[in-house]
Design a protein that fits this description.
- The chain contains twelve helices and no strands.
- It starts with a helix and ends with a helix.
- With about 270 residues, it is mostly helical.
- The longest helix is centred in the N-terminal third of the chain and has 24 residues.
- It is flat, with a radius of gyration of 23 Å.
- The protein has a domain of about 55 residues.
- The N terminus is likely disordered.
Amino acid sequence: MGEFRGMTAAKAQAEAGMELFKSAEGGPRELDVAAAELYKTQMEQRIFVLEAEAALLTGKDNKKERATKGKEVSELKGEARYVDACKVAKGLEPKHGNFVKEQAPQPTSKVEDAPAAAVPEKKKEVAKKTKKEEGGLTAAETQELEKVKQDIIDRKTQLKAEGLSGGQQNKDPQVVEWVNRMAVLKQKQDPGGAEEKKDKDASKKKSSKAPLSKDEQKDLGQRELEVEQYKHKLKTEFGYSKKEMLADPDLQEMEAKLTELHKRAS
């Protein structure tokens, strides 16, 4: 009976904490579920195409290309916006703050409560989001993108049956034309992607000498796991020797980032 009362008290405390959180944030946030589900679908289509392309790259000659495709898939699955889209689609709070509808600011009784610099920064953030939302594909272009992806897979399957290697398949004029068109459509689909990557890279460079934050400490453990998993994949799926693994550019990049985090943690 005492245990039950303890659980009830803990639940009440948690609910009170959530109320305080909502109050501090100016009320519960409204999530854009439709946008999250659309983005999740688009990303899963991209992941499917990459996995399908990797499956076609058989043999030792194509193992580096397969590894590159696998790395791309891992990066897409770990992308902050995609992670948030999956959470919002399940009705959960987004970890990185994506897919939250803009709310009107709450009125305050004191003018000095709001910092003067906060207003232009907010406008800049909204303008950036608006600029990104202006991009995207029309319904016809979305349909074309899916068709081009499938055409590439079908064409490579045909060329593979004719005895062409992965490198020869990629040089096929028809495949080159479709890949270029797919790149154009993908850029239009997410015009802000390159800009976001630049911002992230600049932020990482700026904080390269700073001590690890709590999130980075968690990220350190995750990266260690990813490196071990990638090594295992190179050895078991792609037949890499120890020497070939040391020369793998993706593994070198992953280990370099891990080393940098270890230095900052020490």
